[in-house]
Amino acid sequence: MSRAPNVLILLVDCMRADALGGREAPTPTFDALRARGVSFGQAISSTSTTTPCVASMLTGTYSPRHGVRSIGGERLHPSLATLPELLRDAGYHTVAEVTGPLGPESGVDRGFVEYNVRPASVYLSDDWGQALIRRIQQRELPEPWFLFLHLWELHTPRKVSATHRGRDHGGNRYNRALASLDSTLAPLIAAVPEDSLILLHGDHGERLIDGYFAYRWYRLQRDLLGARRVQKREGHESDVYEVLIRVPLLIVAPERMPAGMRVDQLVRQIDIMATLLDLLDHPVPPDLDGVSLVPAAFAGVDLELEAFVEACGRVFGAPSERRHGWRTPQWKYIAAPYAPEVPVELYDLAQDPQERHNVATTHPEMVAELRARVADVEARAAAPETLSADEQAIVEQRLRDLGYLE
Fold first, then answer.
1. For the domain 7-305, what is the CATH code?
2. Do you find a cis peptide bond into 144, omega within 30 degrees of 0?
3. What gap in Å lies between CA 298 and CA 394, rounded to an integer?
4. Choices 3.30.1120.10, 3.40.50.1000, 1.10.1060.10, 2.40.30.10: CATH for 308-401
5. What's phi and psi for 7, nearest 5 deg?
6. 348 phi and psi, to 5 degrees?
7. What is the value of pTM for the model shown?
8. Residue 364, Cβ neighbours under 10 Å: how many?
9. I need a labelling partner for 374 at 20 to 30 A (CA). Which of 95, 160, 301, 324 fits?
10. DSSP secondary structure letter of residue 307
């Protein structure tokens, strides 16, 4: 390599796996990126909540090890090296542009030379985003740079530009927001140097109402009766079903990974750190939970991976709301570790991809096997790093501003 490439991680909050070509929304920018890189069709997030997912991305470890197991209120364990720390020490100018719950109190800012938190109401199409695009276009970022860009456009209330509000851009607000974001991203992607490494990812998925009339009826009820009087049918955080833990993962790495390739084997969010370090010829720490995905892309090697998954439940909710589980290429196991009265769930995804038929009682041996694998991960849990009273107050105010707390 003549020089180290710039690296862009483009993390789109609430981006479902089917957002890359599987929804009724025009996405020419995302389509062009897919043609340039490797897409992983069965990528599994670590949790269904943003902050723990980002901690897993940046440490290559599961939530029990890194210690961030909720949207706010816990700090990243100090014993773990982070991806931005390693790249900063290797000469990268590390920059994070984040929003939502990703305040520095959680410790996910470690290793970033610049860590900028903007209000959730500020989008890439606004002055902030246009200034960032100009900064890249005019090469004002010291090179090589590592930019972690977290976007909120698909998160409720979902950002839809005036030019994308018609049904030709999708039958619900999510699809229209996706088409709108795709258009907004075009100048950003064009500004990034062609030899840069780009990773597109979703932190977690999103439960949606598909179908124009069903969605419109739901929105009408909420508008007339108020959100608190209508059962919430869209969102995330509460469980680990496929719509929440299946996420897009796309890597564009010129001369390092093939173009236009799709990998359908199970891969994980925790594999991102090792993969990027491998692509950059940087030593990969030996104690990560994740592994490099480069062999799967280059040589078609079946990595035979399985995934621990977790749901935190409501913000500062009762422990009984927590869920954890295990995902294999065929099976999904789900349990409530602090609510033994809640039935264990087991789904044969090969036969039941919609997770409608719980077969736990007819496959007790599989339940026992997957429960043991979950227990192995939970046994490595780090002692929690709690926040100070002042930090906790900042976190709670941020979550209140986002609508997570009253």
1. 3.40.720.10
2. yes
3. 45
4. 3.30.1120.10
5. -130, 125
6. -90, 95
7. 0.94
8. 11
9. 301
10. E
